Amino acid sequence: MTMEEKAAILSGKNEWQSRDIPRLNIPSIFLSDGPHGIRKQAGTGDHLGLNESLPATCFPTAATVANSWDIKLGEDIGTALGEEAASQGVHVLLGPGLNIKRSPLCGRNFEYFSEDPYLAGKMAAAYIKGIQSQGVYACPKHFAVNSQELRRMAMNSVLDERTLREIYLTGFEIAVKEGGAKAIMTSYNEVNGTYANENGHLLKDILRQEWGFDGIVVTDWGASNDHVKGVACRSNLEMPTPGFDSAREILRAVEEGRLTAEELDLCVDDLLDAVLTLTEGRTETVKDIDAEAHHALAKRAAAESIVLLKNNMEERPFLPLQEKCNVALIGDFAVTSRYQGAGSSMVNPAKEAETMERLIRDYEVNLIGCVSGYSRFGNEDEAQKKAALDLAAKAEVVIYCFGLNEVSEVEGMDRSHMRIPQNQIELLEAIVKVNPNIVGVLSGGSAIEMPWQSCCKAILHGYLGGQAGAGAMLDVLTGKVNPSGRLAETYPVRYEDTPAYRYFPATERNAEYRESLYVGYRYYDTSRVRVQYPFGFGLSYTDFAYSDIQADESGVTFTLTNTGGRDGAEVAQMYVGLPNAIVFRPGKELKGFAKVFLKAGESKKVRIPFDDKTFRYWNVKTNQWEEEQGVYQIMVGASVSDIRLETTVEKEGTTSEYPYNPALMPYYYTGIIQQITDREFETLLGHPVPTGRWSGELGINDAVCQMYYAKSGLARLIYNILTKKKKENEEKGTPDLNLLFQYNIPFRGIAKMTGGMVSMDMIRGVVLIVNGHFFKGMRQVFGGFFANRKANRQYETKLAAEEKKGAQQI
Q1: I need a labelling partner for 58 at 20 to 30 A (CA). Which of 178, 656, 685, 703 fits?
Q2: In a domain, 438, yes or no
Q3: Of the residues 33, 160, 220, 497, which is catalytic?
Q4: Does 692 map to a domain?
Q5: Residue 466 maps to a domain
Q6: pLDDT tens for residues 269-316?
């Protein structure tokens, strides 16, 4: 390969493909979104889900399937995703997403598994094994510490090394070591002041050296900041298509000694290994898949993931519904299902998404009518409301379908609150006055506040159940399926109770992770904060008893018995704690789980093994994983708040060098972390808190939405126009994903996303204009445009000449 070819191949040739080199028989590979379904676009490609993609099975989202706590199910879904990817000529599937749900308000939480890194990692590893069993690479994302959508391309995650390791990297570690991931996607944000894609600590020290990762690193679309620094850290593929400006940067860096030829070759070798492995023996012929089997799997996944949150007991449990009872089906979501999220994960379902309205007539209940009752986007409709109340008054049971709408959860925008749209709640409160027998059926991919839950005698949460979710929900409602889903995230009473409440989202450039380890249940459980529904919670139509716990050096064993009258599955969860620990830690942490199916009256002996993560903590003083000496509590139960069995294990410990002085960190030792001072946070960090406030002039890494700081009147006008359009779209309930992306993009991202039309030199000119140097900036933009066009043509000519020479030699 020539130097020009080496430099060029490390960037994409279009929105979804790597660059090919025909003279050397090096083909391109196709990358596609697809955390819960393949999104290969048939026409013009985009990364936001705007243009329609080829039909594919729409499985439940990751947030949904995580509630199944079923590793085998995750692998089955992965295998199906891999089959469909291979059938459509996709080589790398961009998923699963396993970022930690630091705050319930992250707009992309519906794509992520859990607030717990162990559960997220285990589920991600299962998906990866399944996907890669079909000759397709999985690409878990977004590496790392990507917890907010607001200004996601221009913000800096500030956190201590221990929190980084234990909370935000553990899931990725499991995905790489146990799942065997062959690709990984870097996130947009900085981590402690360095962009993830050029962060040597993340990509070289941890990913490559410690974890032994030997696959390819791919940027998120537009996430490359300094391509030379990325290549130096063995980031292999800059996507989507920055043109030849990035390639020229690499060549200059080699000439100037800022990048060695060996570093370039190593990066190219990684990518070539992947390309040749993925394309060997593959044809471009689209293969048929068993669409019906995949639909059935999607339905099973949805059914296993439904969580029964409430089931009042009077003479009998309110659910399952009695046969032939008179049912009123009410709600916009009953008529038009909300079954997936929006943005880059949006799937064009292979089979029309089911609705409860269409399917309910196939079940043993007497449907007396179905009305929407409300508009999911908040528009008032008194006629619909009256029809709903009239219908509800005639029914024995009301099935009320409600939840978060498509505007509430969307890539590129965080939620502003945890409430369901008010018009839905007003109708629920009106219905309960005419008929108290209400089953609430929830749709949505994120935790919500539930002050209205007393209006419902039973509540089922289906999350975002994919194309077959409606049928799965009806199976559970009528008792054909016994619910076995358990919450993979905590439901707080109110948003103000959440641990990151005062720190999320970042108001300036820095996102300060002051809550440290106390994410989700680690905070609520340790600080005794009352919650609506705890992590791991979920009811069943049967009952389970735990007994006979025993622990040894390698694991814990206990007996699980189905003491009820129905067959069902229980998720037994193992938590570990160390009372009076010298090193601060949460009261208990999930370290293992098992989903166990039992027939009515059946007992099984269950073993949950210990592993290398059971007792460890990251010691910032010794800079390695250690175990603290002490007598550990081993707790087994049905949720973090429902511990049924306890025993102990004594550990000798691996070091007497402890990292913290408790006197300097009183709130970290108590878990009361909602108002951590600068001084205590600095003690945790080991250095002063970096300032994230804007000062002086805007730079290439500042975002378009920060042009309210601009000295240029024109720039401020553009900012005001974009902001007005954004607000108008949100008020209409139709957020424009393309606008949101433009609004949050840093200036340098424009050069990375325009197919080579815009160079970094031109962007520096744009920034000059924004900072009030109009004429100087315009000269640089126009001069840069012509210089870039000329340089691109020269580069293309060189590559074409090599191709021609190769063809003549053949």
Answers
A1: 178
A2: yes
A3: 220
A4: no
A5: yes
A6: 999 999 999 999 776 656 789 999 999 999 999 999 999 999 998 888
